[in-house]
Specification:
The chain is 46% helix and 11% strand. The chain is an alpha/beta fold and 640 residues long. The protein is elongated.
Length: 640
């Protein structure tokens, strides 16, 4: 079941996990945004600022004028004051003058040099023009240190820029090469003001909650268990089909126990460079130990936890195996996992490495199966808490018609119903919205396809064949709806669901499923004496059921009570059985399907009037619900 609360964000992009419930960490240091583009832009800005600063300082440089020009300015009465040390003269004009000898700009302060052979009456001229002779220099010269700093400024800025680049590259290398270069360890993050997930947000899997309650109690009361010599379980493996709520259960355990929760996907540990995954695993467990007791959750652990020793490994030193070895060591090695419980989720528990699933690492394997009828009703109530439901909405009836659906499927169903209500401009979700949403989820969205009357009639016979054989077969799933409105890839759909959840199937029931699936092709054969391509999906279902009956479930006397075909339909070693056995499996599959097809054709010929009536009702109404379908066929509804 999807989580009703948001997932905490990552503190750093190179931290492949999220955490919640941990002590708040100081805000991360701001980094230079923009990557290499930012660095190039920064270098350009530094270069421009340096030039501006240096040009500012250079503007204060006073021009050196000739003694002739100086004498002229004195004679003109344009000199306000001077300072002389030896033959060197510094002065300031009353009015700006252009720089002589083709210089650029104007000047007011100047420096000059009185020649030793000059024999003019300089003092008399200065006194005559009321020029002030000062005791302090008119032009303040920069100190040696200031000149040194100005000359070294560009070099210092370039060195500083190089240090910044080197540190950024070192940080990247440290994250990508397993520790080359220094970097600060990531800090756990916490969502403030967000309610943590607990068992109140979980429904439909009560037996799994019972298994995990032991872990919660241990985290809450560790001293009581230690007094009895019991140790904390190292790990719990949650196995089950997709969408059954494994991730939500892990978060609920942490929220119920009130301990920090670190979550990561196994694929996020793997990088191209060997050693990165192991480094990240060490860092993750190190962070979890700092706030122990804590829970570490690894999703899709089969990504890195597959059995070792395959042909893809290069001497046992590839990245995936190094990451797996590090997880094994952290869970039950010399380092120990002090106060850290590892929860992991997988859809393929059968492919995991035995070293990973042994006691001491994953002490428990908890199967998370799709919910039963009461569980589905409870899940629907959770996912409709924020959805306004109209009076008379029967969630129990929806739960009865959704066998096999997982928590994620039911959450999607509730959301689709809400979307339909919005499109229909309603203020509440009605039973009709839920029913239409279920049709969309199970049968597919309607297609605006215009078919000729002849094509529609052929489709009506095809779907009527499926439905009629389902009605006639004893113990078959009741027909819930028939439609010749194109949905998804199908031109028509017949929906049949059981009254209650089934966990084991008899040979008679499976044969009935095959007969019902072949009903469409048989109807076309009986009515038109031709076969069309419309039975493609039906034949796929028939083949899978027949293969399972013969090769996996021992429902063939010729093959006997053995498994000739693996459950996934493939074998890692090529042939799963001897060629003669596989030939016998093929022969028995054909025999069962041929017998079922003959039965389907015979039943349709014997009930041709019911087939015609059902097809005509479909042509008139396009869609028939359960009651209308049985009434049109003239067959009493015997199923309870």
């Amino acid at each position: 079941m999807p989580s009703p609360t948001p997932v905490p964000p990552r503190d750093r992009a190179d931290t492949p996990w999220r955490s919640e419930g941990a002590p708040p960490a100081p805000p991360p240091k701001k980094r230079m945004p923009g990557g290499w583009r930012g660095l190039i832009l920064t270098a350009l800005i530094v270069y421009l600022i340096t030039n501006l600063v240096l040009s500012f300082f250079n503007e204060g440089d006073e021009p050196t004028i000739s003694y002739t020009e100086f004498s002229k300015q004195v004679a003109d009465g344009n000199v306000s004051k001077i300072y002389s040390k030896g033959d060197a003269i510094q002065g300031q004009l009353k009015a700006k003058q252009p720089v002589p000898d083709g210089g650029k700009g104007d000047y007011t302060k100047f420096v000059s040099q009185r020649p030793a052979f000059a024999d003019d009456d300089l003092w008399a001229n200065l006194t005559k023009q009321n020029v002030v002779v000062t005791a302090s220099p008119v032009v303040e010269q920069r100190s040696f240190l200031a000149n040194l700093l100005i000359s070294l400024a560009p070099m210092l800025l370039l060195v500083l820029l190089w240090v910044v680049i080197a540190r950024r590259m070192g940080s990247a290398m440290g994250g990508g090469m397993g520790g080359l270069g220094r970097k600060a360890p990531p800090k756990p993050v916490e969502l403030e003001g967000v309610k943590r997930t607990t068992f109140e947000d979980v429904a439909g899997i009560d037996e799994v909650e019972g298994e995990l309650n032991d872990v919660v109690d241990f985290l809450k009361n560790p001293d009581e268990y230690r007094k009895m010599g019991a140790r904390m379980p190292g790990g719990v493996l949650l196995a089950g089909p997709p969408g059954t709520g494994k991730t939500l259960l892990a978060r609920a355990v942490a929220g119920e126990a009130g301990v920090p929760f670190f979550s990561a996907s196994a694929s996020e540990f793997i990088e191209m460079i060997v050693g990165v995954g192991a480094s990240r695993v060490r860092e993750l467990f190190s962070e979890a130990r700092k706030v122990a007791p804590a829970i570490v959750f690894i999703d899709e652990i089969d990504t890195i936890g597959r059995a070792r020793g395959g042909g893809a490994a290069m001497g046992g030193h590839d990245e995936r195996e190094q990451t797996l070895n590090q997880i094994l060591t952290e869970m039950d090695g010399f380092s120990g996992s002090e106060g850290v419980i590892v929860l992991a989720a997988t859809n393929r528990a059968d492919v995991l490495d035995p070293a990973l699933t042994r006691p001491g690492r994953f002490d428990r394997t908890v199967m998370v199966s799709p919910p039963d009828k009461s569980g589905r009703e409870a899940i629907l109530r959770i996912h409709t808490r924020d959805i306004p439901l109209a009076t008379g909405v029967d969630l129990a009836q929806v739960a009865r018609t959704t066998p096999g659906m997982t928590g994620a499927d039911l959450a999607n169903l509730a959301n689709e119903a809400a979307l339909l209500a919005v499109k229909r401009q309603q203020t509440e979700v009605t039973q009709s919205d839920l029913s239409d949403a279920l049709e969309k989820v199970q049968l597919g969205a309607e297609r605006p396809l215009v078919m000729a009357d002849e094509e529609r009639l052929r489709t009506a016979y095809h779907e009527s064949g499926h439905a009629l054989l389902g009605m006639l077969q004893p113990g078959a799933d009741p027909v819930r709806k028939i439609t010749i409105v194109p949905r998804g890839r199908a031109l028509g759909v017949t929906l049949s669901t059981p009254e209650s959840d089934r966990y084991a199937y008899t040979e008679e029931y499976l044969r009935g499923r095959i007969i019902g699936a072949l009903g469409g092709m048989a109807a076309e054969q009986v009515v038109y004496e031709v076969i069309t391509t419309g039975a493609e999906n039906d034949l796929e279902q028939v083949t899978n059921i027949a293969r399972g009956m013969v090769g996996r479930w021992g429902m063939s006397e010729r093959i006997g009570r053995l498994t000739a075909i693996p459950s996934d339909g493939q074998s890692p070693y090529g042939l799963s059985a001897a060629p003669a056995t596989l030939d016998a499996v093929d022969h028995e599959m054909r025999r069962i399907v041929d017998e079922c097809y003959e039965t389907a054709c015979r039943l349709l010929v014997e009930n041709r009037d019911k087939l015609e009536a059902l097809a005509q009702a479909l042509m008139a109404n396009e869609t028939l619900d359960e009651a209308a379908a049985y009434a049109a066929a003239g067959i009493p509804r015997l199923h309870k």
